Amino acid sequence: MILTRFQETVSLHPDRIALQFKESDRYVQHTYRSLLQQVASVARLLYEKGVMKGDRVAVLSENRPEWIVAYLAVVSFGAVVVPLDAQFMEKEVALLLASSGAKAVFVSSACRQKLPGNFPHVIISFDPEEDLLFSSVSKAYADVSIPPCQVGDVLAAILYTSGTTGDPKGVMLSQSNLASNLDSILKLNLFDHRDNFLCILPLHHTYSAIACMLLPLALGAKVTILNSLKGPEILSCIQETGVSVLVGVPQLFTGLRRAIFDEIQKKPAPLRLLVKLLLGFNRLVRRSTGVNLGKTLFKAVHAKFGPQFRLGASGGARLEPDVHRDMTNIGFWIIEGYGLTETSPLCTFNLKKPGSIGIPIPGVEVRIADPDANGQGELAVRGPNVMLGYYKKPEETAAVLKDGWFFTGDLGYRDKDGYFFITGRSKEMIVLPTGKKIFPEELEKVFKQIPAIKEICLIQAERGLEAVVVPDFDYLRRMNLSNSRETIAAEIEDLSRDLPPYQHIRGLKIFKDPLPVTRLGKLRRSLVRELYQRGGERAKKVVQEIDDALLKDPVAQKLLVCLEPFSAKKKIVSDDNLELDLGFDSLGRVELIVGIEERFGISLPDSFGSEVFTVKDIVLKLKELLAGPMKTGERVQRSWTNILAQEPSADLRASFPVERGFLRNTALYFFKQVLNLTFRIYGQLSVRGTENLPAQGPYIIAPNHLSLADAPAVIARIPWKIVSQTFFLGTTQYFAGIISARIAKLIHVIPVDMDARLHGAMQMSAHVLRRGNILCVFPEGSRSRDGSIKEFKKGVGIIAKELNVPVVPVAITGTYEMLATGMRFPRLSKIRVSFGKPLHPGDLDYDGIVKKLREDVIAMLEEDRKKQKI
Fold this sequence. Notes:
Strand content: 15-25%
CATH class of the largest domain: Alpha Beta
Number of helices: 34
Number of domains: 5
Shape: elongated
Distance between the termini: 82 Å
């Protein structure tokens, strides 16, 4: 049944090119006649080796013409093909061969070692091996032909879904299942014999097997196989071979869209504006007339894809609406299909509504089962494309096949136009203790707007919703941001202000390596959850030879001496991330830079610390600097003592003058009075321990950090004489704008760039204190995410010790309840600010000062909480 249309095409166009495969720098082509002859030869071989109708035959290989020949040969006489993922490990391959009862297996040399050594049946190798050689089969059976297909509606394929464990689940698809799905697609009239389909997705998936094999061969079209997912190689192949249809997954189209718009962003501002106007104009024209002018308006973009390219088909996962919308506005025709392996696979297709999975394909029914009050429920599918069941698993089959309907496990709704939308998977839906329901994919899409986030997965934990994030290190490097955790946490916090409280993220873990996904790009959430629970430990990886060679370099050897005192990691490798693997925070980076300068006898640029993320980055950067016109003979002696003894740069002093004039004092006094009145009425602010504040600087005020309201609360309640001497360290995130920078000067805020300019910020702090002023520093570095006190960074200890100034511990309560992370508007709350007795550095070291300071603050917080209870 599956081969009927293929055989008809062969009879009509035997010399037309059916397949072409890129080998090295050339394309090897196969005509329809030669392809059918190979299929017949391999079918005869299997028959002579004892493979009969109903027997299972596995295919374990990367994409290549032989894969397609093997698949078609197996199903041609009623045997059952078992496609296996070439990425499976040895244990998985052995398990699935045993589970399926395969009597034979086709294998490539790249996968040969994955076969069990005791496999008792026929092994046919695509490459020269000790097994039966595939290439010799065609010659041995050159005169064999396949008779018209009379195999009937029998089992055609068993497909094992990704993430197979010790209890594998195989989807059984019949000849009728696959043939009916093929017929439904043909009735859409979206493709014809002139098309050239680019096959880059693994053929063991039903999606790519239908779209890149059965469909084009039924049409008499051409299939181009390329074993690469690299953008430049894909574009080159499209141009070289005249590809007209690109079959891909959402990740591919997202990457293409990003590449296009990144190029646009590099253009001058007037040209970027013109592009924006043209996109908007084309969108209006499409909506009003249905005509897409994108190919005319954006000729340069389309030229990179060649004149034949006309359509992108996305499947396997949900295509983001903005990707669909932008690619369409540029002039590309993007269609999206929805389905599952259990539905052969296609159920619906979407041509015009971004974000929708579309409408059912011909011959298939889709409905929302048991919809709630909002019309949302589980998608159910009925039609000849629905699987026979799960192989040897009647209970699992009965759980999803009910009264002829297959229950997909996907939750969604149908709009008034009959278009279906997916909101999430039923088994992935997160139900909070409050009863609130969250569909992680929908919320993840919101947080993916943050440019510093490359990947994100939301999970449910004891504290509520928590996130696993892989940063976009390229973006962080371009923006001179070295602290990925704080950067991402702050961005999430800002974005959360527009979300209801139950959707706020209560915990965050940063991963360096990509999150586990299926071959089609879907998150393997159970594996992510396991990694999260293990604390984000990295999988054991084999260090590449280039890495070993790199660390043997003399520069790397000297660098390791600088790194080892700072890291508890026993074996440092070149791809170790300074922050995530070795534990360097912003201060640690400054100390590392000092160590490198002393070790190498050079002076590094101020931007060095924010330009390097891995050990490899540092080695390559150092080699580049050492090779340039830089003095390396003089040995530089630097320490925190030396660093803080130096005055800040002239530019830094000019950007923030410490001297106070009448205007600044007047503005600050007015600001203090407004804050005092606001907190008395709105925050019910009380204060104790102001007598512990010395009347004259220099000294440091060190409060815990709960909220953006903390610094205003301190200003509001301390005496004017002290306020007039006090300077605050504040992040450039809030005080880097034109207006906010002026406000910062008026109210004595020193903007600090913790990533690129921490070195200068430390010197500016010392500069302020040496002039007899008071410095207010939040030792935690950033606000609390949950109201609890975090670890204190040792920056305050360094400043106090090196300048020998006391530190006043400050305990603040109530500001978290008033203006917690993510809150847009403050709430009424009782706020208390308590000042403790000054802590003098004495014989304490940096860490000792910070430890004692934190203990004092915690003790004061406990005392305040007890008094509030009374």
